[in-house]
Amino acid sequence: MIKLPLFRNRLQNIFDCFGKSIIMDEAFSKGKILVNINDIARLAGVSKATISRVLSRSPHVNESTRKRIQKIIDDNGFEPSHLARNLSRRKSQTIGIVIEDIANPFFISISSEIEKILYEKKYNMMISSSQWNRDKELEIVQSMIRSSVDGFIIAPISPDSEAVALLKRTGRPFILMNTFSEDPDVNYVSTDDIEGGKLAARHMYSRLRKDEKIILVTGYEHQNLSRRMEGFFLYMESKGIERDQITHYRNINTYNDGLAIVPTILMRSKLKSNKASIFITSDDIAMALQEGLLQNGRTLPEDIRIIGYDNIEFSRRCRIPLTTVEQSQKDIGIIAAMELLELINNPLKEVKQYLLPPRLILRDSNP
Questions:
Q1: Global confidence as pTM
Q2: C-alpha to C-alpha distance for 39 and 334, rounded to whole angstroms
Q3: Which of 11, 153, 203, 204 has its CA 20 to 30 A from that of 229?
Q4: What share of the chain is helix, strand, coil (3-state, %, to 5)?
Q5: Number of structural domains in the chain
Q6: Alpha-carbon separation of residue 90 from 85, 115, 211, 305, 343 (angstroms)
Q7: Residue 323 falls within a domain, yes or no?
Q8: Which domain holds residue 83?
Q9: Which pLDDT tens digit goes with each residue over 247-256?
């Protein structure tokens, strides 16, 4: 079935193609579309001259008034006049990339694939990281709108974050990656993480030894990590292993967190002598746990078996090559870039929503 985008979003994009920065508020429901500085002045209850002074950063504006006007501008995605003139409406040939963690090897790989496509199509890339901070994520999107990027590829902290809501409200071309949306009018590309969690559980279950402990390690509370965890639990439950039989370590978010949690895992799960299988919902943390366990004298996979998730480049190069669930960073990057560029050139194109199949990669950590 063809999914048609929300009328108001697509109408915004059509106007953008003709060089107008459009702001929509409750007036839209009354059949009125806001198109110029007069409407900003009306919303703020000030004169056009005051708006102009704010846009030109004049010191002759009360600070509280300046903040109130700037919030109206930011909330509605209005482009200040000097940027609008630069557009004319010429495209900026720049795409905004917003990710959660710029140091994460997973996002480094995806960004590299995006950059290749954009370079071929004569586009530049502006990239920034939210560092898992919702306020920062929103500020980044607002700043990129003011910089007149032509569209966004965003890996949001949540598919219903304020940053995503702003992009929807202003009709900016965008595609989500590494998450999915239940909104039928939002483009996204992600991995079927529930199936990925099941793949990890199926392989672990098939290799379980007598009296072996089952351990799950998860990071930030994020949609895709939650779905991996859910898939893992669902498969284990189908085999008669209840959730309370699985030891779960939460909020292990960084490589250093992974190293730091090893003594706790060894003590609480009594792994100084017992065997265990561990599923970690990201490769970065899995490699940290592996290193920490080896430093504490445990052997892999003889004593402890590990399964990671992502199949980042380093996962096959660590001391014990990592068994992992692959989500194709190459495919995610290529699809995100190509779909966004098509959306920029054709605002009325059919919505595309991709859930890519994961794949189990067997290596030495859990052969």
A1: 0.75
A2: 39
A3: 153
A4: 45, 15, 40
A5: 2
A6: 9, 21, 66, 56, 16
A7: yes
A8: 1-90
A9: 999 999 999 9
